[in-house]
Structures are given as C-alpha cells and as structure tokens.
Amino acid sequence: MVKWIQPGYEAASQSGGPIRNVTEDQPTQESRRQAAKAVRFAVGATFTAEPAAPALRFWSKRFKGDFEVRFAPYNQLLQTLHDPAGEFAANASGLNLMLARIEDLGQFGRLDEGSLRLIGENVDHLAEALAAAAPGFASPVLLVVCAPSAAFQSGPGAAFHQEQAAKLKAALEGIRNLAVTGWQDLDAAYPVSAAINEEGERLGRIPYTDEYFAALATAAVRHWDALTRPPYKAIAVDCDNTLWAGICGEDGPEHVRLDLAHLGLQELLLKQRDAGMVLTMVSKNNERDVLETFAAHPEFPLRPEHFAAWRINWQPKEDNLADLAGELNLGLDSFIFIDDNPKECAEVSDAAPEVLTIPLPADPAQTRAFLERIWAFDHPVITEEDRKRSESYAKGRDFASEVRSAASLDDFIAKLGLAVNVTALRPETLPRAAQLTQRTNQFNTTTIRRTEAGIERLIDDPAWQVYTATVADRFGEYGVTALLVMERRESELRIDSFMLSCRVLGRGVEHQIMRFAGRAAFDLGLETVAVDYTASARNAPASQFLDSIPGGRVESVNGSRKYRFNAAGLQSLTWSPAASGTGQSARGPHQAPVRRFSDYAALATGLGTAKQVLDALRSEFSGGASTAAEGAPATETEARLTRIWAELLRRPQPAAADNFFDLGGHSLLAVLLLMRIKEEFGVELSVDDVYSATLTLSGLAGMIDAAMLGGDDEYEQLVRKLEGMSDEEVQALLEQAESEQQALE
Q1: Which of these, 630, 677, 625, lies nearest to 651 by C-alpha position?
Q2: What's the farthest any 2 CA atoms get from each other in the chain?
Q3: Phi-psi region of 676 (alpha: psi -120 to 50; beta: other; left: phi over 0)
C-alpha cells in the first residue's frame, strides 16, 4: 500500500473549502453507461479545475464529437489512481488528464522546511502510484505539472519547485500509457498574457486565469488527437520559396537563399523524418535545377538523400502526389502537402481533398510559429521502426529496381534471403504492436485499433495469443513489421487481427506468417484456422491475399467475412509472386477519408493560441442579449455583464431582470463570475454580494457601477443629492459635466 500524506488545506472560501459544482461531479450509474462509448476527458487535479470544462466542450464541437467531461474529487489524486471504480479506471475511451501543482502536495500556503519535506515525500508517492496505475487504465494518462503560484515562484520555492518537477518527470519516464509535460512546455506551446489568478486562488482554489485554463484544455485535446487519429505518414514539399527563398530556375541555383523561415521548415522536416515521416518533393521545376541547388548549398540541413522519392516536373501536383502514393504504397490520405503558393494549394485541395494541404503564411516571418501549431506534426510515441522508416523505403526502391531488371522473378526470390521471425509479444515490442494497429491500413484484416493497455489485457487472457514478426532480407532489416492476434476456440484457432506493414508487402511475408498460424493450430490440436475480415476503405490487399490461399471456405457474418482454412494445408502454403496480387491503387472509389478532423491549417491560423481559443469560446454566447424591451440592457455595464452571464451560464439571452441562480448558477459559477467582474471592470466583490436569491443582473450592474464610482457611500451621497434637485438643476448639472468633459478632450 502506498503511503499518502494528505496535505492540510486552509479554508479557500467563505464556505470553508474549494467551491464545487457537486451535481456535475457525481456521475450516476446510467451516466457512466451512456459515457462508456463516448470520448471522455476525466480530470483529476490538486486545485479546482472545472474552469477547464468550457474549453474542452468547445473543442468537442470542433471535432464533431461529444466529449464527456468528468471531474474526480478535489485534490484526491492518489485516491483516484487507486479506486477501481474511480473516474480514471472508468474511462473506457478518451484521456485521463491529471493536473498537479507541486506546491499543492504540501501544506497550503506554507514554504517552511517541514512543508517542503512533505512535498518531496508526496511527489515520490505520486510517482509510485502513477507508475503502477497508468499501464492498467483503458485510456492513457497525461500528467501536466502546472505553473507555480507567485509566492512559490519567488524565493527558495522556485528552485525547489523545478527540482521536484524534474524528479517527478524522471521517475515516470518510459512508463507505458503515460505522458508527462511541464508548465514550461505548455508556456512554449501556448503562452498566455497572465497565468496566475490570485483572486481566484483566494476565493475558490482556482489558481489560474481563463486563458491558462484554455491553454491546458487545448494541450490536452491536442495530445488526445495525436494519440487517436490515423497518423500521417508522408510529407510532400514544394521547393522554390518553400524549401528556400528564390526561384532556382530563374535566379540560378547558387543565388537562392536560406533565411530563418526556410531554415525553420527544413529543420522541422528533418525532425519529422527522424519521427518516422517519409519526405518527398513535389515541385514544378526542372529536376536538374533542383538538384544543382542542393549541390550549391551545402549549408542546407536537408539533402537529396533525405527524400524517399520526388516528382520534379511540370505536371499537376495532385497527379504527382498520386504517383508518389502509388510508388510508396501509401494512401493519399497519409500525405501532408506543404507549399507557399495559395493557388497550387487550392488546386491540390480541390483535386485531392484527402491530402492535408498546408499553405505557408504570406509573411515568412510567421512560418516557424505557424508550423509549430500544426497538430498533424505531433508524434506522441516514436519507436525504433519509426526512425528506420525512411531507410526502409530507400531499401524498397532498391528492391523494386532489382525486381524490374531481374531476368527471372523466381531466381530473384530465391536469392532474396527473406527471413521472417515470428515471436510471442515481448514487453519491449508492445509500443510498436499498438502502433501497428493504429498505422496499418492496407494489409489489415479487421482494422481494429488497440492501445498498449488493450493488447496487454489480451495477453493476460490464456485464450489469446499475440505475436509480432521481424523481417529481413539481403537489402537490410525492416524491424517489427507484422502483428498477429489469435484466439483459441473449441474447434478452431481464430485470427482476430493480422496486419503487415506496407513496407514488406509483396515478398511472401504474409505467407510465412499464415504457415506459422497453421502450425500453431496444429500444435493445439485444432484442425481449422479461421480469419475474420472486415472491409474498410483501404484494406483490399488483405482480402486479396486471403482469396488467393487455396482450399479456403468463406461465409458472410454480420456484414463481414470469415475465412476458414485447414491447419495442415496452411503449413505447406507457398508464395507465387505472379498470383499474390496484394497491390492497391493509391486513388480509387473506396478512398474516402475517414478522419474526424483534417483542417489543421485553419486551426493553426484561427485557433493557434490560447487567447484565440478563449475569445472564440466566449463569442459563442456573447451576441445574444435579450432584445425584449423589459429585458434589454439599459446601460453599458449591463450589456457587458450580460455577455459574462451568457458565457458562464451557457444561455444566449439572459435578461436584466433575471437572477443568476435561477438560470442555473451555482457556487463555482458564482466564484467565476466574481473573477470575471474583476477582470472586466476592475472591481472586487465578495461572494455575499452575488450569493442572493433576489439579486438580478441589473442589480449587480448597479453594484458594479457604485463600486467604480468610488464606493457605496459616495454613490449613496450622489443619489441623495440628485433626489433633492429639481429637473432643471439636474439638467444644468449634466450640461456642466458635458462641457467640462469636452474641454478635457
């Protein structure tokens, strides 16, 4: 049992603790069942984190999904990690988001030696609990070590905070199903004008501004998107005014320039290549001019050998992209296309909408920041196979070249030296196995996507067997390129999933793996190997292979197909290259994109910063003030307050006579309302000022006006003075004030 020293917290509000929306934090059994199939963001934090919910829901709309946002009990991270019925354990599909401030793991508000020692001990306990619990969750965990308070940033607390954060991150490095990021990373990706909210901290343990909560929510959704979307695999890039400044065919290869913007792009492309992306060039140019440009500029980080293929000619770029997709055996929806020319980008988008087209900013100075905001470049997991991918494609080119020039294909295959090694899944290959389920589209019998935790649960079941295969031939080693998931049944061995990387298709690897499956069934005393097949937009090569195996029986089951083969017969399966037929056109009638989101370029432009996200979020309810005569705002203060109420209450038309709590307000929203009033008007009100069953919007606006005039006493004196004056005297006073204002202007 992990020892947990519960921090001692002082009262954070007039009610003696953090102000919470209790009704939203207590899920019912029915709500849990309803959310089981939805994307859920389960949030646990050492502080009041509910202000992140609006931004999470905002992103839900952008991704055309329905995010279920749940919050674990306040400041109970260890309990949440250990609870088998807790929010993290119950999250079947989504992200477990853990937000922690180092200082919150001690005694609130104290920086003495005893409290710092307590923080250090609790950091150790948190690391131990996370390392034990995260691999077992169905949904991955993202731990964000959040920014320290102003008090902790100054004095001895700052160095201690960084030391403990570094210790926590180091202790959790390499833990499966877990990612850790710090406040510095968040600041780099989503800098905010002000992060700390001391008023919110005092009122309800809400330590951050709305902008910072928007940054936290955006970073979490971005991480979830990178983990779950079908990955992009190749980048096609233009040359002139994209890879370099200038036009090599007109200026001359030696006269083009590498300025900071283009240097940033080349460096990014190299990092993407190291992360497993395949680089290609698509340029309307003379090939000789482009190659001479590289030769004339040894300072370019990118070299021709970094590109797996290119199409440098005067053909339409969408046609060249299709040719590249065919050569590399990739689908067009695996490509990202980068170009500085808006016209070329528009033509590619129209002709090949499955390609992610990214037009570079008109101002090159914005290029680096813009590219950093492209979510499609994110790679949360990078395996050894990713680092070798470009090299593998180069080997594939050599393979294809020798096949074309061989006098006899049978003689070529005999000399290929193909070696396929099938082994039971090992812990070190688990990340690659999960990645294969996410990345493999063409030779994939069912396209079932699995996480590391999901695969590990299969391994723990004695009825299931999971194998990986490494492949090598005389051209080199290709690493782990196949995954086989099988279930032992009473009368047959069922292949639940069989997938093979497109890098090793067409060499007989699939035949050797099916021979292995036949032997495995025979060893278990089973006569039949059954293979489930579910058609997708891209996996025709898998069905073509299954159809080519002699002696198979096929039946339709609920819209899918089940193939059955004699186990003994599979053990003599051989490859006939002429009949294998596992190729597939890169473009075809079944090539419909299946991505839930693809407009990453527009996102980087319009929602690339936390402030843009916050402004867009607030604007959703800011334009709907009541137009009824009895409900319309009577003053500027009422109009501004109406926008705040609309946003917090998610109601488009609050009226001047409405009561905050009658419209659904609660204690947490009351605190957020006070924080927004301070932000908008520079006025500090207390919880008692707004916590009233009779206070209306117009009444609250009057309190704000009174406070801005200098306080209640001064306001009341002015009212009494005006009440004792005649209409003529009031009019004269107003005219005098207007005259004085004009003189000042």
Answers
A1: 625
A2: 112
A3: alpha
Is the Cβ–Cβ distance between 347 and 320 less than 8 Å? Answer: no
**Beta carbons of 418 and 471 less than 8 angstroms apart:** yes
Look at the alpha carbons of 52, 56, 59, 61 in this order and tell me if their dihedral is positive or negative: negative
What CATH number does the domain containing 71 carry?
A: 3.40.50.1110
How far is residue 65's CA from residue 57's CA, in Å, rounded to a whole number?
9
**172 vs 558, which has greater pLDDT?**
172
3-state SS, 68-130, equals EEEECCCCCHHHHHHCCCCCCCCCCCEEEEEEECHHHHCCCCCCCHHHHHHHHHHHHHHHHHH
The answer to whether 204 and 214 are in contact (CB under 8 A) is no
Non-local CB neighbours of 495 within 8 Å, separated by 6+ positions: 445, 484, 485, 486, 517, 529, 530, 531, 532
Q: Which two tokens stand for residue 356?
A: 């992610």
**Which residues are CB-contacts of 573 (< 8 A; sequence separation ≥ 6)?**
511, 514, 515, 518, 549
Asked if residue 565 and residue 443 are part of one domain, the reply reads yes
CB 243 within 8 A of CB 291: no
Query: Three-state DSSP class for 687?
Result: helix
CA 714/CA 285 separation, integer angstroms: 76
- Give residue-wise pLDDT tens across range 306-337: 999 999 999 999 999 999 998 888 889 999 99
Report the number of distinct structural domains present in the chain: 4
Could you tell me if 418 and 473 are in contact, meaning their C-beta atoms sit under 8 angstroms apart?
A: yes
Helix pair 667-681, 636-649: axis angle to 10 deg: 140
Q: What gap in Å lies between CA 279 and CA 24, rounded to an integer?
A: 47
Range name among 163-167, 317-321, 340-344, 379-383 with the lowest pLDDT average: 379-383
Whole-structure pTM value: 0.72
Residue 601 maps to a domain:
no
Per-residue pLDDT, averaged over 722-728, amounts to 63
In this structure, the number of other CB atoms found within 10 A of the CB of residue 658 comes to 20
**Residue after which a domain boundary falls, among 525, 558, 580:** 580
Instruction: Please state, in angstroms and rounded to a whole number, the distance separating the CA atoms of residues 129 and 291.
Output: 55
655/154 Cα distance (integer angstroms): 45
Q: Predicted confidence band at 428 (pLDDT cuts at 50, 70, 90)?
A: confident
Do residues 537 and 661 share a domain? Answer: no
**Model pLDDT, residue 237:** 98
Q: Determine which helix (DSSP H) or strand (DSSP E) holds 484, and give its type and residue range.
A: strand 476-488
Segments forming the whole domain that contains residue 431: 417-580
d(CA 20, CA 74): 8
From 72-86, 165-179, 399-413, 551-565, the region with the lowest mean pLDDT: 399-413
Q: Are residues 36 and 176 in the same domain?
A: yes
The average pLDDT across 399-417 equals 62
- Number of Cβ atoms within 10 Å of the Cβ of 281: 25
Q: What whole-number distance in Å separates Cα of residue 565 and Cα of residue 465?
A: 18
Q: Are the C-beta atoms of residues 435 and 451 closer than 8 Å to each other?
A: no
SS3 479: strand
Q: Which of 256, 312, 310 is nearest to 283 (CA)?
A: 312
Percent of the chain, pLDDT > 70? 81
